[in-house]
Amino acid sequence: MRLLMNLLWLICGGIFIALEYLISSLLLMITIIGIPFGIQTLKLGFLALLPFGKTVQSCPSSNGCISVFVNILWIVTGGIIICLSHLAWGILLCCTIIGIPFGLQHFKLASLALTPFGKTIVEK
Question: Helix, strand, or coil here: 121?
Fold first, then answer.
């Protein structure tokens, strides 16, 4: 079932979301300062490629000052916009019964997009 849902996700726009994250990741990695942010957008891109069957978990060492600081910097420089766009898509998709599983995946992406530093993606 997971394979079928991931295939439907890709066909219905997931591939475009993943490509957007990949392109933005490469653009961020052009500068040395942007490399950590590029890695986080790459993490979002991998989750956006095949989100069904994956969860987002906090790392045990994610409560440090550096993690909090870069998450705040991430939110201020665009993370809130990414999060709000995934929330809007999630709400829109959850208006129909068929769209609920896809809306839930957007909610998963929104939680990672808000504070990606100190989180990891694991298989269920």
Answer: strand
Per-residue model confidence (pLDDT) at position 83:
95
Q: How many CB atoms lie within 10 A of CB 65?
A: 7
User: How far is it, in rounded angstroms, from Cα 118 to Cα 85?
Assistant: 22
Q: Cα 56 from chain centroid?
A: 9
The ranges assigned to domains in the chain are 2-123
From CA 69, how far away is CA 102, in angstroms rounded? 31
Give me the residue label for tokens 């295939």. 7
Per-residue pLDDT tens digits for 37-73: 999 999 999 999 999 999 999 887 767 788 889 999 9
- Amino acid, res. 21: Y
Can you tell me the distance from the alpha carbon of 89 to that of 48, in angstroms, rounded to the nearest whole number? 13
Q: What stretches of the chain show up as alpha helix (H) in DSSP? A: 2-9, 15-28, 35-49, 65-74, 80-93, 100-114
pLDDT in tens, 81-124: 999 999 999 999 999 999 999 999 999 999 999 999 999 999 98
Residue 92, token pair as written in the block: 């829109």
